[in-house]
């Protein structure tokens, strides 16, 4: 930090098991990755190459190398996994992870129908090859999953070998954990937290109001994801009670 | 593409006559142009320097040179044409196009009243000097143009020499083709497509939901415009059925 | 300007006392600062490092040096001042301003309760050390300040030594001067302008519609603030009547 300030909540340090920030790269150039890392490296724990952007992104290997040299793990968005599954090409997907030297992968079922057992089987298999993040929730606005089912799915996927489960929000933050207005489904989140340890969940929270909400509920070291590269500094100030929205939250009462 | 995937719609390749992506540069620095081209060059067919940003943009000639060396045509936004016309300086405008070596120009009447015959006369004259794009639609929310009139204007402007006609949406995507909510005026678009060949129209579609809508209606190789430089990769995945919103659209049924 | 155009309103030139553009840097990397300055240097009068981003921003001294070499003053957002005040560390704050060679500072009370006299006392003390901008208005949506009180506060703070007063809008432009919809509180602004000289006020106007509104009300040389770095070129065209929204405003009638 650039100067001392008291009454700042303690932040975990890298490598973090909680207090993670997962950033979404949806097509940065190599120089833009360097720019992002200059400001965000210490505050970024893992990077997702959004959905299947890795299919069309030029200089993919060079990009992966930059993140690797910064010690930040990268994974392909879950939609890419689903694109291979819907085409019945799981083995191809595994080979491609190897080919690009990926050490993390996301398993999701946001865009297709997949039985819970089938999903857990993919988690079991893939977790022998890489560290697996598994995403719960649908990208479909009309598909409301009740809390008990979120919990059941999360438990099963963690037991099957997922390192973390991700609470789905879509890039725009208007499905899954959130109402179409972007508002958090508070009861859902609180109920999940009674059953699943907070450090095992990454909450997708692309919008500032959502980040504020999770920091207030869970604390400075909540795991959040789908953060835009240029919002990492802002998120860090929200975590530390140094933006208006959380200004009073961590002060001695 | 970085790895093989089946059931991907065929994309046209450069130089494209359909499947065009028109990107709006509203004041990028030279290095930002380079960054954009690193990721977007293969997916970008033409660049518009938004409205009259070219008037105040520093290093304009250097910027034009970068785009030129990448083989991507550039034109000044239609508002600049209108700014000269409202001042009765059409000849000055033509000289400025020459002075900057412009090979494309846009003719529009979004911010002033112009008779259809007068507009076609400008198209006829300017198309002797450059390749002309002509824009139909108003920037004025209150001015609703009925479908038959959109079609009549588009036909006349193509006959007068326009290379493509552009369906106006304003940068924010909330006028012209769109309701103030950003929703597409579906009946209007479908009626236009019964009369004007799809490859002759560039649909302004700055918002993701609009891009998705046009790809679903017209196909992977729809012409769309007013795309932000950092959204070109995203658009390409939407075209290919590799983002959640179009995930199932191109799969074998 | 890159070519001549008539009927363009006269713009003040640097160093400006009116017609100021205050830009918010909320965590740019060094290269991103250079990119912003390449396009925005001539149109940017002062830069705010948003809220307390300076606490977590890497390479802060190098960033300050780049702005300094461009001759653009920088100040830390008012929330940082408040973060020190709420911790009863005003003297520490003054030392930190010295330590970083700051020549400007913002005094605000958007996130805490502060008596008007106390605020003016801070302005008096700090204005012996640096040039002070003082911000009026609350970040709290529920806290509506009536016009006569805005005026009283602004007058008192200018008399206490503030160089300019800032009309609060928050980064999102939805509190203070604005309704939660982002719409300007027109009566409030007009009443303020009957009592406070326009050149003494910087209006926070992060959204385009707000910038348009102020340019139409006050003129091309209105002072506006909280402008995003990549929107400075756009703002300049709005000031000059070269974007659709102000296209007709400065034309000879």
From TrEMBL, chains A, B, C:
<comment type="similarity">
    <text>Belongs to the phosphosulfolactate synthase family.</text>
</comment>
<protein>
    <submittedName>
        <fullName>Phosphosulfolactate synthase</fullName>
    </submittedName>
</protein>
<dbReference type="Pfam" id="PF02679">
    <property type="entry name" value="ComA"/>
</dbReference>
<dbReference type="InterPro" id="IPR013785">
    <property type="entry name" value="Aldolase_TIM"/>
</dbReference>
<dbReference type="InterPro" id="IPR003830">
    <property type="entry name" value="ComA_synth"/>
</dbReference>
<dbReference type="InterPro" id="IPR036112">
    <property type="entry name" value="ComA_synth_sf"/>
</dbReference>
